[in-house]
Amino acid sequence: MAPAEDGLAPGQQTSSAPATGPAAAKNPFNFQTQFMDAPVVKSNIGQRRGHRYKHSSISAQHQVFQEPPPRPPPVLPASLPIPTLKEAWGSMNSNQRARLYWCCCHAAVAVYVFFSAENSLAMTALSHLVFFDVGSAAVCVAVDVLGNFEVWRRSSIRHPFGLQRAEVLAGFAMSVFLVFGGFDLLSHNLKHVLETVGEHTPHHTHADARYVSPGTVDFASLAAVVSTLVSAYGLRNHGRIRRVMRVPLPYLSSLLPGAGILANPFHFLTLCFAFLMLLLPLVSVPYFVWLDRVICAAIAGSMFTLGTRLAIAQGLMLLMSYSGQQPDSNSNSNNSNAVALGKKTDVGGGIGSRGKDNNTGVTAVVREIEAEPHVARVDEAQFWQVHYGLAMANLKVCLVRGCDDSTLSQLRTRLARVVQNRLGEGYGRGGYLRWEVTVQTSTDGGNLAGL
Amino acid sequence: MAASYALPTSAFPQHHYHPSSDHIHSHSHSHGHSHSHAPASLSSLSPSRNRRDSRAAGGHSRSHTNEHNHTHHQGHSHPPAQSRQSLPPPSAPSSHWRTDSTLGGDPMSIPTNGSFDALNKKYELPVGGDPHAHSHSDSHSHDGHSHDHSHDHSHDHSHDHSAHDHSVERSKFTTFLLPYTSRWPILHTIMTEKDSRRIFYFMTLNFAFMTIQAFYGYVTDSLGLLSDSIHMFFDCVALAVGLFAAVASKWPPSQRFPYGFGKIETLSGFGNGVFLVLISVEIMFEAFERIIEGRETKRLGELFVVSTMGLLVNLVGMAAFGHHHHGGHDHGHSHGGHSHGSGGHDHDHSHSHSCSDEKKHDHSPAAHAHSHGHDNENMHGIYLHVLADTLGSAAVIVSTILTHFWKWAGWDPVASFLIAVLILLSSLPLVKSSARRLLLTIPPEIEYNLRETLSGISELRGVAGYAVPKFWIDDRNSGEDAPANKLLGVMHVVAVKGADMEDVRDRVSKYLLGHDIDVTLQVEREGDTSCWCGVGRSPLSHSHKPTKSTNIF
């Protein structure tokens, strides 16, 4: 209470000072007019040595402190605070909280599936898939919540691109989990096969280890199906991860064009196998050991394949490269090739292999930039993707002589537009990639040696 | 806007403290610099037999001498460091190669493969000493605590495997093998690089061992052998990934990878770390299950033999990879490792050691994340993987012995649970440090200098301001002569009206190059608001507002 009063008292005093006496007397608040301890301060003046407060009268008179030269405020904060768990919890809105709760439910389902798989390898494998779903959903929630904070998006010196790359990193970790799961299941499977092939009597008889009587519903698989459907339809959790994998399963999208949820490989896998396990007892297929192993091997194999692809896709991003190929870029690049044909091009520096087919987008863009009237050549062009939503293009361009400021400005805008239009993929399709284009210009014969 | 400025000022004090607390680390970077000068002087000394090889080796031995001395001056009070310093005198007069190795640099910190190459080539060959015995005496002379055990084991395994494997006697064998590999370019690249060669040898050993195991397992119908060979196969896969990363990190930048492949080793280290975390979690779960179920472990004898062999093979790996670390930055790892490996006799003993080991692990990423460490994350990951396997075999051995004497089914789960905890704890720092690098985070001490540098920019003539400064650590030339903390970056600079833009650009980029920052500069005229960086758009602030400026094209 005391500090608040102290803080209020001077303000009250100044506001009431111009007013006349009655006004002050009528003050509804019971504030005492306080004076600062002036005598104490005065008695101190002659005795203080050493440090003096810059704005005190003594220091001002003697100019002990030189004013530092005025500096503009820093462009970037050095670092932004990374939210603690408590702050993150406090910042969540209701939608995010609902997603979090659902994540917990999903995790519970995964644990249930895991523990209801008594020695059934296929069920264990299914639980791995569900665990992966839970993990990715959790990553999505975390990303959502962190997006509430400034440190996530805004760049500081310590985190030049914000923390958004963490999403890619988490995705990479999840894909490592997939690979690990695939390996793990395969090795378990192999061990079981060895145990039974060898003449040792298997110490677990697998046939009756987990037995769902024919014609009844296997609750574990049912739970897996339901939770996956809720996650897919209700929350659209896997949109992000699907975006990374441009060609998730080579034949899936052609087999099921416009299949919506099913085109997402993860939901597809989980749903598929869960349905299979659900149906097998229902239609009274006897539960063979070999069937169990085959299903497990299938799940493990697909986990491994998907995990590898996902890991490569995200690893490329983490390696600071741009590997985007949008399907409709081919026609465009043909056009630009035609435009660029007339121009003699000489590209050094960062552009090593131009004839590569795997990067037609970037090559085409570089050619188009070279085709600009004011551009003599492109010295260096670095295209790389920072995270799912941001990519950078750093160009060092040599111009023809005689460009004034407005031409330069226009040229920059045009180059930025070219890059954005060519490479900013899928604007209407939800996955929007923003390009930050930086163009370093020089004129021919200018000093390039220092750069 | 006012609010957004409250942030930086509040953030300032923290960052003045950070560098000061990390000052020791930032000092150790400068050794990285001095190390870059080394190869010239040493390679001129040595008649170069194989150009690349001897050069790399020379650079290393030199650099470690420097680093070693400096750390002592700064009073890094790692216990092992002190014990190392006190150790050499007693052992020095006993063996003649000790003097040799002091010629080539302090041997304590360099039991790297490459340095042995150099030493053997330059000094050992005339003497005709056995390079193989030699390397062992070197590597163990600084083993502060676990002298006897590690001696025993290393002798064991060296005798065991000198017959069919060659990862121990590197220098002679490598020089003998190199001419033959020149026919296969890939193999040749693997063999010429130090790290990849080591991974390759160990992978070959692992693979050979796996084949033998699988064959005998098949012949004798031994389940334990077969399943252990499966395990070995997965190890081989992990090693192959590491090998690929080590090779790929040397690839030059291309259009698709404008910044080269310097990050691939960090990536591999991260992947390995995550893998280890997952494995240890799984082992913990399994151990829990087994404790609850009380399952009996069977075929004890077979298990014992198999895991002993696995332990031996992995000890070779520990010897190979552990010393790399040693050389690099931290003297804790392989001590811990050795005592672990030998700690098979006594369980508790090995634990206490590994805890101290863990602490050093904690220090090390912060200290070296950028000092020297282009290749360390990959090797660290592999090292931890091998360490995990070694610990696993040791745990199996211990638990079989215990089960043999005291019939309790819980020994094995308990041992594996403890080992899993250890693995988890030791791989978390690796995951953290590599994640930090992959996120392109600027480490505190560099950040401090960077802020100083940036504040100097606006004082340059003709510069009105700047925007969107984004910098990241350069991972391209991960070779020996790369300067340690080079930064790459992007920045938009605003030139005042009337200033020549070329001039401003040259001035700023020269200034930044003077601070080891290679930047792509976009120079804009004051008052031009067309760029996405939004320089002149709001008079109050130059700050970048990504949420607003998403689409201006």
Automatic annotation (TrEMBL), chain A:
One of its GO terms (molecular function) is zinc ion transmembrane transporter activity. Keywords: Endoplasmic reticulum, Ion transport, Membrane, Transmembrane, Transmembrane helix, Transport. The keyword Transport applies. Residues 112-319 form the Cation efflux protein transmembrane domain. InterPro entries: Cation_efflux_TM, Cation_efflux_TMD_sf, Msc2-like. The chain crosses the membrane at residues 100-117, 129-147, 168-186, 219-235, 255-281, 287-312. Residues 14-24 have a biased composition (Low complexity). Coiled coil: none annotated. Residues 1-24 are annotated as: Disordered. GO terms for cellular component: cytoplasmic vesicle; endoplasmic reticulum membrane; Golgi apparatus. It is a multi-pass membrane protein. SUPFAM superfamilies: Cation efflux protein transmembrane domain-like (SSF161111). The keyword Transmembrane helix applies. One of its GO terms (biological process) is intracellular zinc ion homeostasis. It comes from the Eukaryota. Belongs to the cation diffusion facilitator (CDF) transporter (TC 2.A.4) family. SLC30A subfamily. Functions as a zinc transporter. This is Zinc transporter. It comes from Cercophora scortea.
TrEMBL record, chain B:
Pfam families: Cation_efflux (PF01545). It is a multi-pass membrane protein. It comes from the Eukaryota. One of its GO terms (cellular component) is cytoplasmic vesicle. Residues 37-48 have a biased composition (Low complexity). Residues 26-36, 326-338 have a biased composition (Basic residues). Residues 1-165, 326-373 are annotated as: Disordered. The keyword Transmembrane applies. The chain crosses the membrane at residues 199-218, 230-248, 300-321, 414-431. GO terms for biological process: intracellular zinc ion homeostasis; zinc ion import into Golgi lumen. One of its GO terms (molecular function) is zinc ion transmembrane transporter activity. Residues 93-102 have a biased composition (Polar residues). The keyword Transmembrane applies. It is found in: Endoplasmic reticulum membrane; Membrane. Belongs to the cation diffusion facilitator (CDF) transporter (TC 2.A.4) family. SLC30A subfamily. This is Zinc transporter. It comes from Cercophora scortea.
